[in-house]
């Protein structure tokens, strides 16, 4: 056997074909649409100026928050909480059972997410740029909520 660099198209063709059987075995269906990611963003405006933004995607029934930032002069005024709440509403409307994110471990951000019902699922040691990160999640309904 040899391992070589491959053209992305060739690898994707193989994966599209062979994941079918795995999906049938694991989920009882092989609909490729179940893996399509829907990318979205939300923004908070005050006086016509953007003061906060949240970027996320929905994939396989999970809302994945990738970025949430509030302008320095607008922090601690509920902007982040309102963006987070709207994110959860959108995810629930789209049929998500869970939302998740990764943030700096033991940080002000982790505390913020904890206050909004997120729980640490795991600690990613020396992860991004060698810094410990916390993987956090919240169930929207059903088991774990």
Judged by helices, strands and strand pairing, the structural class is: alpha+beta
Shape: globular
Give a short account of the largest sheet: 6 strands, mixed
> In the residues, how many domains can be counted?
2
pLDDT < 50 stretches: none
What is the subunit organization of this protein? Answer: single chain
Output the CATH class name of the largest domain: Alpha Beta
SSE topology sketch:
Elements: H1 8-27, E1 38-46, E2 49-59, E3 62-70, H2 79-93, E4 98-104, H3 108-115, E5 119-124, E6 133-139
Parallel strand pairs: 3-4
Antiparallel strand pairs: 1-2, 2-3, 4-6, 5-6
Can you give a write-up of this model?
With 145 residues, the protein is α+β, with helices and mostly antiparallel strands. It has two domains: 1-35, no CATH class; 37-139, 3-Layer(aba) Sandwich (Aminopeptidase). Helices cover 30% and strands 34% of the residues. It is built from three helices and six strands, in the order αβββαβαββ. It has helices at 8-27, 79-93, 108-115; strands at 38-46, 49-59, 62-70, 98-104, 119-124, 133-139. Strands 1-2-3-4-6-5 form a six-stranded mixed sheet, covered by helices on one side. It starts with 7 loop residues before the first helix and ends in a 6-residue tail after the last strand. The model has no long low-confidence stretch (mean pLDDT 94).
